Amino acid sequence: MPEYRKDPITKRWVIFSTERSERPKDFGKVEQVIDSQECPFCEGHEDMTPPEVYALRDEGSQKDGPGWKVRVVPDKFSILDEDGDLKKAGKGIYDTMSATGLHELVIETPNHMGSLINLEYHEIETFLKVIKDRINIKKDDYIIQYVLVVKNYGSEAGAKFKHSHSHSHIVGLPVIPKRVREEILGAKEYYEFRERCVFCDIIAQELSENERVIINNEHFVSVCSYAARFPYETAIFPKKHMSAFENTPDEYLSDLAHILKDTISALCGVLDNPAYNIVIHTAPVNQIMPVLYHWHIEIMPRINKVAGFEWGSGFYINPVLPEDAALHMKENLRS
Amino acid sequence: MPEYRKDPITKRWVIFSTERSERPKDFGKVEQVIDSQECPFCEGHEDMTPPEVYALRDEGSQKDGPGWKVRVVPDKFSILDEDGDLKKAGKGIYDTMSATGLHELVIETPNHMGSLINLEYHEIETFLKVIKDRINIKKDDYIIQYVLVVKNYGSEAGAKFKHSHSHSHIVGLPVIPKRVREEILGAKEYYEFRERCVFCDIIAQELSENERVIINNEHFVSVCSYAARFPYETAIFPKKHMSAFENTPDEYLSDLAHILKDTISALCGVLDNPAYNIVIHTAPVNQIMPVLYHWHIEIMPRINKVAGFEWGSGFYINPVLPEDAALHMKENLRS
User: Where does the record place the HIT domain (chains A, B) (predicted)?
Assistant: First the structure.
């Protein structure tokens, strides 16, 4: 049974999911290539996954059969236990909690394509719409405090398989993640000081300085962050204040699909198809102050190693100025 | 010129050190093997490093010549500017600071040995004594707020060269690292609640439960942490309350050398010579409440990839229970 444990000093939760365990000496050494013959995510192979919980389907097609655009299934290797009750307990000074929560995979396309940038704009738009809908559905579960959407591309980014079929994870958690809590806390302090959203102020300054902006369309802007942890780390913000991703109007999603595909394409052009992680940071389910959080997407290329200095300090060393990174990416957009 | 930039939301500092920059497509792809012929850290090659700032030398030997046990030199690829003044400035909502600080390398042995576990106990004891002395000397610099000691072993742990000559980094920072600040904050809250050191309580519970203890000698204990982020992550604590590593009595260092070498040896046995990071977390230079911080060493094997879930949430997924990890390591000690 998976279990959450809380670090009594830093209050960080760790999920112990021993069913995923490999033999000690095998860690991180497997990198399997999956072709379309054996790919459980390809159209026609629906029986290789658990039954779907949601799909955008052609009229007349059957559940768990072919004829879909986007398909959502429970993760076979889920880190969380969907059916369990949330049990919290103490053991001396330690805190533990049952690893209750939801873990779904969104299969972004019926075709065996490994990278998001091979998808058409309208396909990405559809997949973003599905993610929006799934988050809204999950929010009805009384245990879920936060819904995190992540994508791992390439083995350095933690993807299990090489050249895999493009998919994302939706994880519903019974607690608000530490990183999101930090952002909310920082935004709250800023709001109390200035009575403005810190994200809105960042966007305004980025647009006015125009040194780190990569793409600026009607509703969204992508920038290399001023204090990026990683070389070429990029963020996408809605230009209008909006706390929850899942409340984004559908008519904005075409713009979002364009900026997402074009930003990642530029990244892949500059860095030669790097591994990367994508994270959607939306507001917690029970928003107390929607005025202070502002949803955004973080794109983190995994091209340099994180060393002892970073693990020990929580600070990062970045060898590339975001101004230079933005310039390289803009040049790549034009070429 | 290196520069610190502060994330305006999470308040994390990032050091931009562009002099270390490689071409975008070369990131993380170089892994050079250095043999003793070309190793700048070997005895007899003292002219290949910047002039030493400290060395434990045989009587009659010359500065920057052979005849030393442990040698300390400035890092040629320093991330920090030793001579600069500390300049802080704002730019709109962003904060920046000159990357002032100290960055030294401690060469742990004159012999070309890549791993700490190839050193004799008395050699490790000597090298720990030198680190203690260097921290105490650095504390006199009025700019330095924190001295971090880290060791990277193996390329997955961020080491630049494969099979390199065993060495550590001492980094003097003008700010307290985020991770240490979090520990202090957590320890402070605990102290206010219970009027006891949280680390002392952890040690007491670990010794009494004896489920995660690997080695327990007169002055130190090594344990697989209850909420370890990484498989086989291990911590070493002095059993007596002591806030600063650099105040450890010299007569304790033999015990520390033994527990450090034996713990890492067990780790290397179980995991087949893994990459790892070692961090010494000591109290900040200007200790306000020595009663609440408790120095410790963190040993983090780098055997699994950090994926989008971890980067996006700040939570970790660990496939190995620390109780199992401790058991494997103890079995390896005996064999």
Answer: 198-309
A1, A106, A166, A311: which to substitute to probe chain B, counting the most B Cβ within 10 Å?
Answer: A311
pLDDT digits (tens, 9 = 90+) for A163-190: 689 999 999 999 999 999 999 999 999 9
Within-domain flag for B6:
no
What is the domain range of residue A8? 3-173
A258 is catalytic: no
Task: Return the percent helix, strand and coil in chain B, to nearest 5.
Answer: 30, 25, 45
In a domain, B171, yes or no: yes
Q: Does A17 touch chain B (CB under 8 A)?
A: yes
Residues A311 and A260 in one domain: yes
| Domain CATH number, residue B215 | 3.30.428.10
ipTM of the complex, rounded to two decimals: 0.88
Segment of A235-239, A301-305, B114-118 carrying the highest mean pLDDT: A235-239
What's this model's pTM, rounded to 2 decimal places?
0.92
User: Is some CB atom of chain B closer than 8 A to the CB atom of A281?
Assistant: yes
B 32-61 near A (Cβ less than 8 A): none
DSSP string computed for B29-92:
T--EE--TTT-TTSTT-GGGSSPPSEEEE-TTPPTTSS-EEEEEEE-TT-SSBSSS---EEEET
Pick from B25, B199, B226: CB nearest A5: B226
The tally of domains found in chain A comes to 2
Q: Return the pLDDT at A288.
A: 74
Residues above pLDDT 70, as percent of chain B: 94
Please report residues of B whose CB lies closer than 8 A to that of A209. 92
Task: Kindly calculate the radius of gyration of chain B based on its CA atoms and give it in whole angstroms.
Answer: 20
Are A240 and A127 members of one domain? Answer: no
Q: Which of A173, A197, A230 represents a domain boundary (last residue)?
A: A173
* A165 and A211 in a common domain: no
| Residue of B156, B313, B316 to mutate, interface with A, max A Cβ within 10 Å | B313
Same-domain pairing of A165 and A185 = no
- The region, left, alpha or beta by phi > 0 then psi within -120 to 50, assigned to residue A125 is alpha
Q: What are phi and psi of A304, to 5 degrees?
A: -120, 155
Same-domain pairing of A165 and A195: no
Same domain, A165 and A182: no
Contact A15 B316 (CB under 8 A): yes
**A173, A196, A214 - which closes a domain:** A173
